[in-house]
Specification:
The chain is of the alpha/beta class. The protein is built from 11 helices and 16 strands. The N and C termini lie far apart (50 Å). Bound molecules: flavin-adenine dinucleotide.
Length: 449
């Protein structure tokens, strides 16, 4: 064991962990960042590589350097199963060079004084009198070290190595159920000429991407990020589905694979609490990705900023530690958690639709571009137009319309509960009430195998 003690140990140096370390180090906090990857591979991750520029602004980062992205995204287009109908979501973004973007964030943290232990796997968290005290780590696959800290941050992504071993804590699920993740496979392909550079395309199709979607994201004139994400628990291999997507596209017949790989992203509402005593959770370890499209880079950085800020306050006011850390929850809920929960209801609604119903909904424009943009940005509102309500009266597809109208009601109810996010004392009671709403919605409207 080393005698060295840190204020904070952050496990995982992905987008969330690197930004947490940066947020802490810039305030003079003694922080250790641990990642199982070797330093030069940190940031490399199977991803769609798309990032809305509003996320960068929200977390107060400067515009990323030129070498961290390959191209720009002008807007996103979401297509119906037949591709006949499409909705445009305005908003600029970047087609990232994911590895370099990650290295940039890591560099920002190290420049501010964060220390890095790369090629080091965090394993076991030890507790004394209910408080986490030290972390066991295996360095370079061999030597074991135990390092102490006041606070621990789980930024280990889907692995959630700390979350999976915390003692029973209301509002924190150690495991995420398979139905609440997207299992994805993507390829980076070299093509003769990408279609519509600057437009990131999302295709809804329950046959090719059950419970998810497939995407076509141009990176530059000749490079394409193409992939399929499906709902977990359906026993479907997204790699087979991507093969089918490519088989159907003539323009991709002569393309070649530059990189390929699979990954998992949790797509449920964020954890009810990002705090369990002196352990905090951010990014995929806290299920912060947008439940509808799985975009998780932005929310991982947002949760990093909120948790980082709360830890700084707690370190400066140890007597009121609990209250200061709880601010991570109230702030995150205000900024994003409430929207994430409301969108989780909408995610379940979408996953239960048939292709015919999606086609019908998009043809009739049941959801406006504005609603869709808000859903994409995670602002989570769904105000059904009078038109939908009129259609409800005796139309040919009453099922989907009634469900949509009920879904909008549940989304509002959930949002209201989150708008009254509780203090720590009333938290367990609040969790059971909110869980009850989700269970009820899921029982009545979610996809059943
Ligand atoms: C196929 C796919 C496509 C996606 N496309 C997009 C997209 O286009 N846009 C978008 O915004 N989001 C996308 N996402 C989601 C996004 O990639 C994640 O939400 C985001 O990377 C989460 O960041 P994070 O920092 O929480 O976790 P990660 O980026 O996963 O970082 C976790 C880090 O922890 C380290 N680690 C894990 N276990 C340990 C351990 N025991 N000890 C030490 N270190 C450990 C890992 O090495 C890693 O560096 C996609 C995800 C997938 C799988």
């Amino acid at each position: 064991m080393t005698d060295e003690k840190y204020d904070v140990i952050v496990v995982g140096a992905g987008t969330g962990g690197a930004l947490t370390a940066f947020s802490l180090a810039e305030k003079g906090v003694k922080v250790l960042l641990v990642d199982c990857k070797v330093e030069k591979l940190i940031g490399k991750k199977v991803c769609g590589d798309a990032l809305g520029l509003h996320h960068i602004k929200n977390v107060k980062l400067p515009y990323p350097p030129k070498d961290t992205f390959k191209g720009r995204i002008d807007f996103v287009k979401v297509y119906s199963p037949s591709s006949k109908y499409a909705v445009t979501v305005e908003g600029e973004g970047l087609a990232l060079d994911r590895h370099r973007f990650g290295q940039w964030l890591l560099g920002l943290a190290l420049d501010k004084g964060a220390e890095l232990m790369a090629d080091t796997r965090a394993t076991t968290l030890s507790y004394e009198r209910g408080r986490a005290t030290q972390l066991r780590m295996v360095c370079k696959g061999q030597s074991t070290q135990y390092i102490k800290a006041e606070y621990f941050v789980d930024a280990s992504g889907y692995d959630a190595v700390l979350r999976r071993q915390i003692p029973d804590t209301p509002g924190i699920q150690r495991d995420v159920s398979l139905e609440d993740v997207s299992v994805a496979y993507r390829e980076i392909r070299r093509v003769e000429q990408v279609e519509d550079i600057g437009i990131a395309k999302i295709f809804l199709d329950q046959e090719l991407a059950p419970g998810g979607y497939w995407w076509y994201f141009p990176q530059d004139e000749h490079t394409l990020n193409i992939g399929v994400g499906v709902q977990g628990g359906r026993n479907i291999n997204p790699k087979d589905k991507l093969k089918e997507v490519i088989r159907r596209r003539e323009d991709l017949q002569k393309s070649s694979i530059l990189e390929a790989g699979g990954g998992i992203v949790p797509t449920r509402r964020s954890l009810y609490s990002l705090v369990a005593k002196n352990v905090l959770f951010i990014g995929d370890a806290a299920c912060t990705a947008n439940p509808i499209h799985g975009g998780g880079i932005g929310p991982s950085m947002l949760s990093a900023r909120t948790c980082g800020g709360a830890i700084v306050k707690a370190l400066n006011d140890r007597e009121n530690e609990e209250e200061k850390l709880w601010e991570a929850n109230t702030e995150y809920t205000r900024l994003y958690g409430a929207k994430s929960a409301s969108l989780d209801i909408f995610r379940m609604f979408l996953q239960a639709l048939t292709n015919e119903e999606i086609e019908f909904g998009m043809m009739k424009q049941l959801i406006s571009d504005k609603d869709l943009a808000e859903i994409g940005y995670g602002t989570g509102s769904l105000t059904l137009k009078d038109k939908v309500l009129k259609l409800l009266k005796g139309f040919t597809k009453p099922g989907v319309l009634i469900n949509l109208s009920e879904t909008a009601k549940y989304m509002r109810t959930v949002k209201e509960e989150y708008d009254n996010y509780p203090h720590a004392k009333e938290f367990p009671e609040w969790v059971s009430k909110v869980e009850g709403i989700f269970k009820e919605y899921s029982r009545n409207y979610a996809f059943k195998k």
